[in-house]
Amino acid sequence: MIELRDITKSFHNGPTTTEVLKGINLCVEKGEFVAVMGSSGNGKTTLMNILGCMLRASGGSYRLDGADIESLDDDQLSAIRNKKIGFVFQAFNLLEGTSALDNVLLPLVYAEHYPDDAEERATGLLQSVGLGDRVHHKPSELSGGQLQRVAIARALVNEPAIILADEPTGNLDTASSEEVMNIFKRLHAEGKTIILITHDPDDAARAERTVFLRDGKIFHREEVQ
Amino acid sequence: MKTTLMIKVAAGAIGRQKMRTFLVELAMMAGIATLTVIVALTQGADKQITKRIRNFGPDAIMVHSGGGKVRGPSTAAEANLSKKDISDIRNIPGVLLATPIQTELDMPLKHGSKFSTAWVMGVEPAWQRAWHRGARKGTFISAADNEQLSKVCLIGTTTAADLFGGDDPVGSSILINNVSFKVIGILEKRGQSPVGTDFDNLVLIPYTTASRRLMNQPRYAAMVRVIVSDPARAHHIAAEIKGVLRENHHLAATEEDDFRISTAAHVARMVRMSAKTMGTFLWLVAVIAPLVGGIVLMNIMLMAVAARKREIGLRRALGARKGDIVMQFLSESIMLTVIGGFLGIGAGVGIAFYIHHLGKPISLGWQPFAAAFVFCILIGLLFGVYPARKAANLDPVQALNQ
After folding, report:
1. Rounded Cα distance, B252 and A121, in Å
2. Number of A:B CB contacts under 8 A?
3. In chain A, N or C: fewer CB atoms in 10 Å?
4. How confident is the model at residue B278 (pLDDT cuts 50, 70, 90)?
5. Contact criterion met (CB below 8 Å) for B98 and B245
6. Strands B223-228 and B60-65
7. Residue B112 DSSP label
8. What is the pLDDT of residues A116-137, one digit of tens each?
9. Nearest to A52 by CA among B163, B314, B59
10. DSSP secondary structure, A184-213, as one string
11. Overall number of domains in chain A
């Protein structure tokens, strides 16, 4: 499903060039739950952005669902982000002053067809993450754990095959983290492909498989130990 | 629905940033109010000018004694149009009638203890047909009045009000330059002349009485009003009159005319010319004022883009194309300008009615509203597109990590 070959990424800042990713090779099969671990500053977020089609690699090839991502234009990448990928961010990134329901509906605004049952679908997703009684609440009226669950509902609303979660528990207390991780487990059981970027070994332990990002390269568990 | 959701989101963004919204609306409101008021005033003035030109009469030609540039009416003192001139004009084909007028401006009038001044005109009965204007009350000056040099007069409504207040003037006597005249009628109301003088502050007396008794000009007429059968040929006939008069007055080719001829077309050109300078200036203000609103909008939208980078990054991550972001910010801009426009129209109409109340002519058609509406959308587009494009071209990763 996801196939990264020799992916490199460099950032130019004036005369200095920083090579953040130095040849990433990673395959994720459909339905897998993979954790990417690494301490901060190791290029986790850069990798996440490349996987999420938000950022183009400097070199190498990225195939997603058979499509050669490097050859697509900006609008096509937008369509892929909308259709195939559900993002969950560390900072939740919900629209202020906008109800949980409207936040969940947001990706559908950019979908090819706005489904007739959009509101029922969004409400159903909010119920499935335990927020059936918070549908019309605004972000300022919700706790951190609730916010992240709204964000997960939003990631799911356009029925993407892949969930990309970047440190989803980074801003949450233990109890909320537990709730969020349980939702990921359930989604995995339902057949979603999940890529979880984290520095928390407990979270990583929920995944089927963990890879490590160090010095811009991927290492598998056996290589690390 | 997708569109309703987009409108909801745009409205939400507008509602959340109240200070920003307030500033843009204030600027747009001032601009559009200015536009509305100016359009109402210009149209009002234009309507008035058209009416004044209509008062002159499209089938009329005025012949004035004395040369030089167009100014007010000629007076008995400078009269040089002979009886032969008039009969020759009458003989030009296409001329329905030509009637002499003897004039003195601002003659002193008195009735009882009330004083006033008015133009006094000596006229023949044909004056009625020449001006399409007769007595609204009483009778007009007759041929017999002219034969007998009667001391009778008709007065305009302004003059009547000045001298008689609410009383009925017909049958009373007034003093014109200390000569007593009997009021036999009141003239129909006419309004303003093309140059803005009051056609209703007027006293008509028999032509002969004016020439021989009051103005001491028995040989020549101050003015002749000519009516033609076909208004389209008025220009042509005016040229013929010019030829006849130059010949009668023995003018050499190098000499200038010692008379002036004006047609409705002349008058219209002259009046519109002076109105146009003012009009151009006002239109400039009308267009610039809303543009200032546009500049405020652009500033505010640029601030909004800077403040909402994270939201833009998020929308891009969720699948918004650059075009979607452009649309979002453009619809916000247009929503802001259109709301401002409606407020401005409201304020403008209020101000226009106030000005009307102060006595200036205004005219409010649908045009100012259509103009304001179209203008608002154009301003929203014109000044919104740069901030919107700036928003769309943000790097989504950097925007999201703000």
Report:
1. 99
2. 73
3. C
4. low
5. no
6. antiparallel
7. T
8. 899 999 999 999 999 999 999 9
9. B314
10. HHHHHHTT-EEEEEES-HHHHTTSSEEEEE
11. 1
> Which residues, listed in sequence order, are joined to residue B101 by a DSSP beta bridge?
B223
**pLDDT classification of B196: cutoffs 50, 70, 90:** low
Contact residues, chain A, for B4 at CB < 8 Å = none
Residue B307 contacts A, CB cutoff 8 Å: no
For an interface test with B, the pick among A76, A82, A109 (most B C-beta atoms closer than 10 Å) comes out as A109
Helix (H, G, I), strand (E, B) or coil at A24: strand
Rounded distance between C-alpha atoms, residue A107 and residue A154, angstroms: 7
Which chain B residues are Cβ-neighbours of A108 within 8 angstroms? 2
Q: Which residues constitute the domain of residue A185?
A: 2-224
User: Which tokens in the block code for residue B251?
Assistant: 């003018």
With CB atoms and an 8 Å threshold, state whether A102 touches B9: yes
Q: Which residues of A touch B6 (CB under 8 A)?
A: 109
Burial class (CB in 10 A: 0-12, 13-18, 19+), A117: exposed
The structure's pTM equals: 0.70
Q: Does B7 touch chain A (CB under 8 A)?
A: no
CATH number at residue A132: 3.40.50.300
Residue of B nearest to A91 (CA): B401
- Cβ contact B217:B176 at 8 Å: no
Asked if A44 and A38 count as a contact pair (C-beta separation under 8 A), the reply is yes
Substitution target from B5, B308, B318, B389 for chain A, most A beta carbons within 10 A? B318
* Whether the predicted pLDDT of B55 surpasses 90: no
Q: For residues B212 and B179, what is the distance between their CA atoms, to the nearest angstrom?
A: 13
* 3-state class (DSSP) for residue B157: helix
CB-CB neighbors (< 8 A) of B310 in chain A: 93
Q: What is the predicted pLDDT for the residue at B37?
A: 87
- Residue-wise pLDDT for B67-98, tens only, equals 776 567 888 888 899 999 999 999 999 999 99
Is the CB of residue B58 less than 8 Å from the CB of residue B264?
yes
Q: How many CB atoms lie within 10 A of CB B73?
A: 18
Token pair for B302: 């640029």
Q: Which of B129, B140, B120, B131 is nearest to B183 (CA)?
A: B140
Domains of chain B, residue spans: 2-52+275-400, 60-229
Q: Using CB atoms, which residue from B16, B318, B400 is nearest to A97?
A: B16
Strand order in the sheet with A2-13: A16-28, A2-13, A59-64, A67-68
